[in-house]
Design goal:
The complex is a heterodimer of chains A (284) and B (79). Chain A contains 11 helices and 11 strands. With 284 residues, chain A is of the alpha/beta class. Chain A has an 8-stranded mixed β-sheet, with helices on both faces. In chain A, strands 1-2-3 form a 3-stranded mixed β-sheet, with helices on both faces. Chain B is mainly beta and 79 residues long. In chain B, 9% of the residues lie in helices and 27% in strands. The relative contact order of chain B is 0.31. The longest helix of chain B is centred in the middle third of the chain and has 7 residues. Classes of the chains: A alpha/beta (284), B mainly beta (79). The interface between A and B is large, with 48 and 24 residues.
Chain lengths: 284, 79
């Protein structure tokens, strides 16, 4: 019997990138055919391809910045996303497009009509139904290689602890402060980097918190005295800034997993899109 | 002494003419702290969450100096 990589190489096609670099590639139909023939997951076929130096064509535009090694790290990694609303919906979509291997998504909420203004998976046809189930089917249609695990419920300390084990990064797409502090505490215990995002009105903020970093206390203050919600209660949330902050969170996750660049550690990026100001505040 | 202040999001509306994120100058007494500035501008205390001076987070009892740049943010928590 042929080895998996021989099957992949037999179907590989050359591709010349705009910068004249040549890649060996495998198409989506060939990925799916091999997965079916060999009884492998689509993710495993993509991983085997990359290990053989063959790029799944769907990731060709990632290559210039991530290279094969970065793509392989993404496909091998699992991330935990807490919240499948405004930030979470866009984060899930973009991580699937990037080619994250496994995404665990936790949220106990269902879509309501007032989610339609900004939440990526909210549709007129799914109002009243579960957000995590919509996220799972949405991701499947974007990238069937990204494996999705869902937790259809609101998380407490016990759930976060169990979902976080083995994750390369955790992503805060929450809408309340108490759960944020719980998530940060558990991330520090399990030594998992946490990517924070939050939005209100035309404004939003992003930072990445490694276990040894100053975290939420530096900009939310004492967890005992902080209100459950911020000024978003008054200002609402707008599609443009929600997807902007979600997109920046995805860049942080990609940097954490691939080791590329410099995450926004101990620095809070605050965007005010109403007046066009961006501040990076040093948190220590 | 004169300092420069930026108020963000909802905080800007408490000071006439101060748009969110737009710097303005103000006079504070020598020895004033960040908290004194918050009081002088009549900002609601519960809306003040992050205060920074010259690009670094500083507590409310931080002493101000001439030409300091102070930024004040409300808590943002939506997802």
């Amino acid at each position: 019997m042929m080895e998996i990589q021989e099957h992949i190489l037999a179907r590989a096609l050359p591709y010349i990138a705009p910068n004249k670099q040549t890649y060996h590639t495998i198409s989506l139909p060939d990925r799916d055919a091999l997965a079916a023939t060999l009884g492998l997951s689509k993710r495993n076929v993509e991983i085997s391809a990359l290990k053989a130096g063959v790029v799944p064509q769907r990731y060709l535009r990632n290559m210039g910045s991530l290279e094969l090694s970065g793509q392989l790290k993404l496909l091998n990694a699992r991330a935990l996303l807490i919240g499948a609303g405004g930030l979470g919906g866009t984060i899930a979509q973009l991580l699937a497009r990037m080619g994250l291997g496994i995404l665990t998504i936790a949220d106990g909420d269902s879509f309501s009509e007032d989610n339609l203004n900004r939440q990526a998976f909210a549709q007129e046809s799914n109002v009243g139904t579960s957000k995590v189930h919509a996220a799972r089917s949405g991701i499947l249609s974007i990238n069937a290689a990204t494996e999705v695990e869902i937790y259809d419920g609101f998380v407490g300390e016990k759930e976060i602890l169990s979902l976080l084990k083995g994750a390369a990064a955790a992503i805060d797409a929450l809408d309340n402060m108490p759960t944020r502090f719980l998530l940060e505490k558990t991330c520090k215990e399990l030594q998992v980097p946490l990517v924070h995002g939050a939005v209100a009105g035309f404004s939003g903020q992003v930072t990445t918190i490694y276990p040894e970093d100053v975290g939420f206390r530096a900009f939310y203050g004492d967890p005992q005295t902080i209100p459950e919600k911020g000024i978003e209660v008054e200002l609402g949330n707008l599609a443009g800034i929600v997807s902007t902050i979600a997109s920046l969170q995805v860049q942080e996750v990609v940097k954490i997993i691939t080791g590329l660049g410099r995450p926004l550690r101990n620095r809070l990026l605050f965007l005010d899109s109403l007046n066009g100001s961006a501040e990076i505040i040093s948190l220590k | 002494m004169r300092i420069s202040v930026k108020l963000f999001a909802t905080l800007g509306r408490h000071v006439p003419g101060a748009g969110s994120g737009t710097p303005f100058e103000t006079e504070v007494p020598d020895g004033a702290t960040v908290a004194d500035l918050v009081n002088q501008l009549k900002l609601p205390r519960e809306e003040v969450k992050v205060t920074f001076v010259n690009g670094r987070t500083r507590p409310l009892d931080w002493l101000l100096h001439p030409e300091d740049e102070v930024g004040i943010f409300p808590p943002i928590g939506g997802g």
